[in-house]
């Protein structure tokens, strides 16, 4: 390639140089795009962690500290507020608005099933916060990956062996960080409620892919299932706390 051709032939050195020069901008653009996606994902992860923590603390403050002993009503309020807050995005953006009818026609059965799982598990989790400390609630919920793996194992889809120690390490590590030795002694009812909530959420996560015939993002899933979840827990709310 270092030789320079003679006569009418094009120099090979020039060809190689031109190709490398033309590839450099493409590589830079690709790297910049990958970096932008990575930073966006990282920002979304931090936002999720912050918002989830704020929600957990606010629920515990309302149900445990302020003696607002209506966890089902609080859950129903969440389910009612979710579609209201998402309505501007879901109704004004054409990419979402044009899919509403198709999503309901092809996936309404799966949406109802997911909504039932979701509504009940959130109601149970909120109810547990009226009986146990948030620290104990989070200790139990730290076992979510392990429960999901167990359900997948029962369905005949065992997780890779390499993931087993990782899942166990994550669960134990979260327990050690969240658990507080001076936390109040948890009541058996509260522990039972959060254990049931974790089991239902793990089942929802495991079966959601097979229940839904269409792929939905988090906005769509929340917008479509929240009203259905409200209908599922509506009767218990009126009967128990009405």
Q: How would you characterize this protein structure?
A:
The protein is mainly alpha-helical and 242 residues long. Helix content is 79%, strand content 0%. The longest helix is centred in the N-terminal third of the chain and has 54 residues. It is globular. The N terminus is likely disordered.
Tell me the span between the first and last alpha carbons. Answer: 84 Å
Q: Percent helix among the residues?
A: over 70%
Fraction of residues in β-strands: under 5%
Mean pLDDT over all positions: 80
**Sheet with the most strands?**
none
Give the SSE string: HHHHHHHHH
What secondary-structure arrangement, pairings included, does this model have?
Layout: H1 12-65, H2 71-92, H3 94-97, H4 100-128, H5 134-141, H6 144-154, H7 163-178, H8 188-211, H9 218-241
Helix pairs in contact: 2-4, 2-9, 4-8, 4-9, 5-7, 5-8, 6-7, 6-8
């Amino acid at each position: 390639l270092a030789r320079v051709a003679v006569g009418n032939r094009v120099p090979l050195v020039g060809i190689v140089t031109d190709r490398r020069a033309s590839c450099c901008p493409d590589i830079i653009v690709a790297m910049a795009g990958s970096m932008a996606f990575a930073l966006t994902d990282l920002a979304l992860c931090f936002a999720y962690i912050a918002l989830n923590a704020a929600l957990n603390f606010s629920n515990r403050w309302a149900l445990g500290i302020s003696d607002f002993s209506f966890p089902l009503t609080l859950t129903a309020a969440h389910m009612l507020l979710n579609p209201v807050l998402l309505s501007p995005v879901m109704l004004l953006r054409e990419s979402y608005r044009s899919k509403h009818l198709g999503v309901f026609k092809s996936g309404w059965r799966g949406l109802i099933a997911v909504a039932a799982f979701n509504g009940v598990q959130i109601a149970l989790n909120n109810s547990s916060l009226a009986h146990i400390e948030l620290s104990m609630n989070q200790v139990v919920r730290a076992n979510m990956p392990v429960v999901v793996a167990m359900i997948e194992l029962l369905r005949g889809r065992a997780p890779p062996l390499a993931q087993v120690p990782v899942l166990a390490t994550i669960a134990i590590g979260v327990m050690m960080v969240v658990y507080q030795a001076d936390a109040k002694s948890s009541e058996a009812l509260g522990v039972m409620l959060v254990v049931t909530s974790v089991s239902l959420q793990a089942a929802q996560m495991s079966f959601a892919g097979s229940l839904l015939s269409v792929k939905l993002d988090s906005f769509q899933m929340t917008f479509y299932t929240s009203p259905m979840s409200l209908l599922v827990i509506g009767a218990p709310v009126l009967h128990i706390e009405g």
